[in-house]
Predict the 3D structure of the following.
Amino acid sequence: MSHFIEGLDRQQTMLLPEHLDDYVDENNAVRAIDAFADMLDLAVLGFNAQAAATGRPGYHPGLMLRIYLYGYLNQVQSSRRLERECGRNLELIWLTGRLRPDFKTIADFRKDNGPAIRKVCQQFVALCRDMDLLDGDVVAIDGSRFKAVNSKAKNYTRGKLRQKLGEIDKAIERYLGELDRADEVFEQTGTVLPEARMERTLRKLEHLQKEAVRYRSIEQRMDETGETQVSLTDPDARSMATTARMPRIVGYNVQTAVEANHHLIVAHEVTMLGFDRDALSMMAAAANDVMTTDQLTAIADKGYYKGEEIVASEEAGISVVVPKPMTSNAAARGQFDKADFAYDAGMDVYICPAGENLTNRFTSQQDGKEIKSYASGACAGCAIKAKCTTSKDRRVRRWEKEDVLDRVQERLDKYPAQLAVRSMTVEHPYGTIKSWMGATHFKMRTLKKVATEMALHVLAYNMTRVMNIMGVPAMITAMKA
């Protein structure tokens, strides 16, 4: 070992032991965790901060919160792993004062203090606002599917149940046919098939009949409760589509709003819906509540395009940028699309590609919305009618609040680069958090507990971002100011 840097002899006695504090320098993240936990009013947030009057006292909630903050900052989310780290990890030993709660105590704290932990996440976002980190005017909104504990094999829809029962019925019919053929052979020739084979067939029949009873009980549960899906391990998990290249997963749809300047997650929500179109106004309003700007712009992809959601956001004073999905097949058929008809608001008419005016003929109600129908009497003699419609007249429908949607489209047409801002802003946090999770599932079950786990992930992500932006000493100074 000569000519190399050598460490201390393990048997060497330290006459003047170093302080434990000397092993944690001023730039260590545990100092930021400790300072943040110190500034929290745990009782107001909802933690039980009262010591037991009798018996052995429990651990202080501030200590348990510190353990979880450290764990999620360092990709250690398991309570058993956190217990081990408390006994061997010098940073955690410094943070806990050499206390070592058992894994059950650690797990119970996360399970029993869900609402308070979610408030801690919100408190850190408010702290970021106080540190002038949320003074931008653009947020990006997106949703991503996260796996639940529940496997695909233990998630059932009506279609899946029908498929399974159909397969079982065919298998039972096949095995019963084998038994019938065995009886025919015995009656005609007196030959008995091997006993082992018959026993195997009977065992398979018994198993299939039990499976059929199990599937029918799940189907009956759906009939009684009105559920469209049943998940046996995590009852709140739902089967959701991801992308064309990825299979369906059983999990949750996590919605986030990320501000564009520092890429901090300013709002998040865990939902059971497999689509995003009903979440735009909810996430935009949540982001608007914490951002300091008076004119917020919310950017989302076409999965969020829904007229009612866009109007609700615009009426709340939030400028929305959402591309309209192409749902019409007219262009594929070689015909004019609605976008080829220009609307004149002053005259309240649509102008068709041939230059004719389509006037408002009648107004109807559809799903609670007022819809106007526009048509022209000049379609019969139009030279390009074949490229427009196969009906007698071409009709164009317009929602009473479609002028709001037109403004949103004009805004996007004027600044198309905003869509690139969305992907660069909101995709990175999802990738980071899923990487920290190890590309695996949530560790907790049911929506409320999963929401707590996600709050810890978001809090850890935001703390990491702020430490990278400001540095640990400056962050601690700002928190104490």
